[in-house]
TrEMBL record:
Family classification: Belongs to the helicase family. RecQ subfamily.
Residue ranges constituting the Helicase ATP-binding domain according to the UniProt record: 24-195
Swiss-Prot/TrEMBL catalytic activity: Couples ATP hydrolysis with the unwinding of duplex DNA by translocating in the 3'-5' direction
Gene Ontology MF: a single term: hydrolase activity
SMART domains given in the database record: DEXDc, HELICc, HRDC, RQC
Gene Ontology biological-process annotations: DNA recombination; DNA repair; DNA replication
Protein's UniProt name: ATP-dependent DNA helicase RecQ
NCBIfam families: recQ_fam
PANTHER family linked to this entry: ATP-DEPENDENT DNA HELICASE Q1, DNA HELICASE RECQ FAMILY MEMBER
Domain Helicase C-terminal: 217-373
Amino acid sequence: MDLHGPLKKFFGFNKFKGLQEQVIKSIVNNENTFVIMPTGGGKSLCYQLPALMAEGTAIVVSPLIALMKNQVDAIRGISEHNGVAHVLNSSLNKTEINQVKEDIASGITKLLYVAPESLIKEEYVTFLRTQKISFVAIDEAHCISEWGHDFRPEYRNLKHIIKAIDSVPVICLTATATEKVQEDILKTLGITDANRFKASFNRANLFYEVRPKTKEVEKDIIRFVKQREGKSGIIYCLSRKKVEEVAQILQVNGIKAVPYHAGLDAKTRVRHQDMFLMEDCDVVVATIAFGMGIDKPDVRFVIHHDIPKSLESYYQETGRAGRDDGEGYCLAFYAYKDIEKLEKFMSSKPVAEQEIGHALLQEVVGYAETSMNRRKYLLHYFGEEFDDVHGDGADMDDNSRNPKKKNEAKEDVVKLLSVVKNTLQQYKSKEVVNTIIGKENALLTSHRTHLQPFFGIGKEKTAPYWMALLRQVLVVNFIKKEIEQYGVIKLNKEGEGYLKNPTSFMMTEDHSYIENGDNLIISNSKFSGGAADEKLVKLLKDLRKSVAAKQSLPPFAVFQDPSIDDMALKYPITLEELCTVHGVGEGKARKFGKEFVKLITTYVDENDILRPDDLIVKSTGVNSGLKLYIIQNTDRKLPLDDIAKSKGLEMSELIKEMEMIIFSGTKLNINYALDDLLDEEQQEEIHDYFMEAKSDKIQEALDEFEGDYDEEELRLMRIKFINEVAN
């Protein structure tokens, strides 16, 4: 059967994309069909074309009203009958429902889009039973599986509802499904005989990058977006509050951005979505509610302000970039703190759901922290092999562009595989690593693993090292994760073979996200998307040292390291520009800035450096209000506990806010609060320590005083010290 005629007639295309033609043939032959096709691969055409060709009406089950509306409008655009496609959901009134029924009965309607909730209604089932139905298509089929990243219980009943209407072929379509999810979908729908079509998940035009998430994340985003002025992008955040905040900050900084989340009323959501589609705004800041089925081909970047809960979500959301095969930049900001937050949210869920959630989250951690080719890691997760040397898009990620050095790890791979084998393949990755480094816990003790000769076989290396190695051994298929058992590690035959005959194994170490003071620094500086100018950093540190010596101060009291790094990234040549540098306020700039600005100006001229011109990032003024409140109330000598309580802050959060004020050069007098905590002698002892210290890191101070003072006391004393000697 030639399908090119109908394709040209209905859609105006001359040729099919990828697997479309084979899928359509399967549907036209009335066979159950299962389609896995990445976002942008042309899934909808797979059921739209056969529906337009067949006698009767095709039912399309879809989870989102916005998605249905989009598709119905598109189909109506290619037909002279408005009734060719209809939506049946809670948004219709009686008259509209009768019109839909009339068009189906008279054979005009070829595609009927329904939400699963509507399909359950007895009146609809009774009506549809009397009509000629061509087939049922289930879009976003991963919603059927509780292993999917978007499970919806009402999807589980579809099998019975379809049977109640008619025994017609079923077509399932999804953009993301691991092996486990695929089996679950087919079993639940009772169509294990379905023809399966799986397109490659490789989107070669997408560039993947992960950056450390610091306090400066909004500044980083503004800089990134401003460099792509006029281009369309989506920024995903996990909470509605964060969506509103980020959208506001972008607007204040002259970027055309709108928020989108389920808390907005339907009218506003539709308006914002249309503004994005019609290019009246460039950026949508959204929760994951946005984007399903949004057919905008020229989204040029997708930014994850917060890391998502699963790699499926991440893949699907990044997949909204570059659908026209043009440039698509996928940037995610990652801090392990966010993972811990997500785990906390999960603790109220049933145990089985928690287990699934944790297993999915660990995959995200692996992706973010890995230093191997990100595309290879991602495709392996979806059960697809990728050649990271010659494959299409092999160098389209940050790790391939900035490779970390590799080390021979043959002996360690043998240790790792033998521990998996000797513990009878019953542990998840965390327990395997604990066994290797010799860290006891209840589970290992109950299995008496801690008494085995191999317990602690690799204790000379750290847990993150072994976890990194485990992930790389997983990707080359020496081991596999048993999803049925929430991630238990088993040996593959390739792993068995390696144990018998070990060969060279070059391992790249993971990125190490380490807390440095209050700023997340990534140990691989190339990675932070625009590394500081090392030569300038050295000159600035030398200058800092001499300025500090003249004033008899420790260098960190002049400018902290993150400030120096930021200067070497932004090249500020006026005091006003210096105030936009991390941790530098007007007071600090006035007191120490002149010589630094002078040095940078000379350096820029001598080295013909192009400076980034979007240095000034305006804030929305939320924090400036808090800053003023803290300064006024410490002047009034109000107890710090009362200041914190009145603003709904924990004490540690208040101290953090005070540190930001003090480090940027503004004076803040908290002597009255310290006098209640520490006597004169104690204060003097800590003051002298900071005067001599090489760095102002609190951990080093805690180690030095060996428990004489707690963290809160030391942080408050650091504030007093900087206030007196540096501001």
